Amino acid sequence: MIHITGDTHGEQARIPLIEAQAPVRPGDILIVCGDFGYLFRNDEAEHRFLDQLAARDYTICFVDGNHEDFDALEALPEEDWMGGRVHRLRPNILHLMRGYVFTLEGKTFFTMGGAYSVDRHTRTPGRSWWPQELPRGEEYRRAAAALLARNMQVDYILTHTLPAEIIRRMGCFPDPHDAELTGFLEWVMYETRYTGWFCGHWHQDRPLPGNIRLLWFDVCSL
Question: Per-residue b/e over 68-90, b at no fewer than 16 CB within 10 Å?
Fold first, then answer.
């Protein structure tokens, strides 16, 4: 079974809560929709906790949010996994890279992480903020090609933030700093046939138009 939740932000108490709420069983897959955060400070305490997670008998995957140590992630070797490309933090902990389609338990998942940090001015480059939080041109091109190769049809979409139109329909204004990303996601929403879309970032738990489920603490099981 596949379980999907929202931002964990490196909070160690979240994992037992998720395991109890789902519940997560041996062989399952747990997906976090960005701001995973267990590799953020990249210090001994985080690595000890990652070692503890490595003892779990299920797989943990995440798309990146805006609060990740992208330098640490990009220093990890890339490898093929389930049709896409990943960074492997531990044998059972995988970063699902942007712009790929993964096949998990017979279902296809398109991934496009990233978002803009509205609190960027309070953060330190290379320590608590990284410019890679927003996708680069090559990642957009790869993402579009991956969808086109599947005739613009997947089962599920995993992102961190939302399409621009959905942000507006929530009564908010899309931030101009990530207009390229939210605009691209709007194109994905209109042009792709999909069953469900899961995302985080907004720290809310609610269904949204377009078969989108905004997640923070809720866990959706497929």
Answer: bbbebbeeeeeeebbebbbbebb
